[in-house]
Specification:
This protein has 417 residues and is an alpha+beta fold. It folds into 3 domains: 86 residues, Butyryl-Coa Dehydrogenase, subunit A, domain 1 (Orthogonal Bundle); 145 residues, Butyryl-CoA Dehydrogenase, subunit A, domain 2; 135 residues, no CATH class. Helix content is 45%, strand content 13%. The chain contains 12 helices and 8 strands. A hairpin with a 2-residue loop joins strand 2 and strand 3. The structure holds flavin-adenine dinucleotide (FAD).
Amino acid sequence: MDLTYPAAAETFREKVRAFLDEHLPSNWEGVGALPRDQRGPFVEEWRKTLRAASLLAPHWPAEYGGSGLTNLEHVILNEEFAARGVPTAGSNDGFSISMVGNTILHWGTEEQRNHFIPRILDGVDVWCQGYSEPNAGSDLANLGLKAELDGDEWVINGQKTWTSAATTANMIFALCRTDPDSPKHKGISFLLVPMDQPGVDVRPIFDMGGQSHVNEVFFEDARTPRENVLGEVNGGWAVANTLLGFERGVGATVQYLAFEKELENFIELARRYDRLGDPAVRQQIAKFHTVVEVMRYRGYQVLTTFLAGDRPGPESSINKLWWSVFHQEISSAALALAGPGGQIGFGEETRGGIGAPSLGTPNTIANWMNTFFVARAGTIYAGSSEVQKGIIGERVLGLPKEPRADEGSWRDTQRLG
Ligand SMILES: Cc1cc2nc3c(=O)[nH]c(=O)nc-3n(C[C@H](O)[C@H](O)[C@H](O)COP(=O)(O)OP(=O)(O)OC[C@H]3O[C@@H](n4cnc5c(N)ncnc54)[C@H](O)[C@@H]3O)c2cc1C
């Protein structure tokens, strides 16, 4: 196994470092080191800097505002940005660039690309993901949000739920039932729908931490132009799967960096509470270190897949299990270190999003408390742990299939993705 990057890649790394040196202050210690009220404005400005340098979606072709980076260059860019504690995009870009932007480039018509891609990069359109419904989560193809053609427009009625960031988005990519008479996964279309209209009502769902990352989205005669279908009418299942494939994109190769930083914070916390000599804490640190190393090598495996011109398959489920459980366990352990003090100060600092910790997160107990809460959701969204284990059992290990009542479950999405 050769874990060194080719010389040309290392030359590119120097370029990235020079870019960061040029655009970050000399005393820069990461976004998390900024006073709380300066972090949001910094990320907004940083997004503009990346846009101006064609680095906001660096792997996109130059004609669509990218820099045409190879997968390896993209990984190096992510590594260097992580090392300096700066984000690779704005706070709302996950759904917009990584998911729907990539999918529009893949499936979109020339008109759709020319219309939507610049709006995404300029931050004019901010997207959220309308897949899940009250009766469609793991069994996604059971979705029922209805869309019917009325002249030149689709008319949409029904509900989505668990929609992250719907309060800040002005566009939603929504899987809609456009042919109720076809088999479940054949009558679905992938519609691009403006949210700023009277027929769309967003209602926040508050979690046990008092935050509202997720929302219900109700559609009552909402409208979108006829041409706002990505891919074929009734062919949305394939588009939906392409998007899920992008969800497991190049970012997975360096995801471990954020968790490595989280472990450093945990060790620092143990030092602060004078618990580094405690054998039980040392055992926890050894375990967390081992898991970070596993994630690092899983990252290398994903990178190898990309370099071979392929995309990660069902084995991505292994990564999902590792990071989501790690995140829950380390935040629980951090609060245990702090004892009753772990409950003081909750709400002082809100870390914001769900998922992987953001680099530069301040190492405060309040933040660990927030992480403790948001990490609970990690074993549910993007496919629950039980579903991931089913995928690993059946499709990675080749164990006998569980009996399934129907086609079109989340497992089928993973198969196609
Ligand atoms: C914080 C958060 C953010 C989210 N953001 C979004 C978003 O932006 N957009 C969006 O569309 N969705 C979003 N979701 C929804 C998420 O994708 C679903 O919650 C998830 O797919 C599980 O679906 P469900 O909640 O309907 O649970 P269900 O599918 O009803 O599952 C219930 C239980 O049954 C188990 N189960 C289900 N099927 C199987 C099986 N085949 N084998 C074994 N066990 C099984 C599950 O593991 C779970 O324990 C989000 C969810 C959360 C928690």
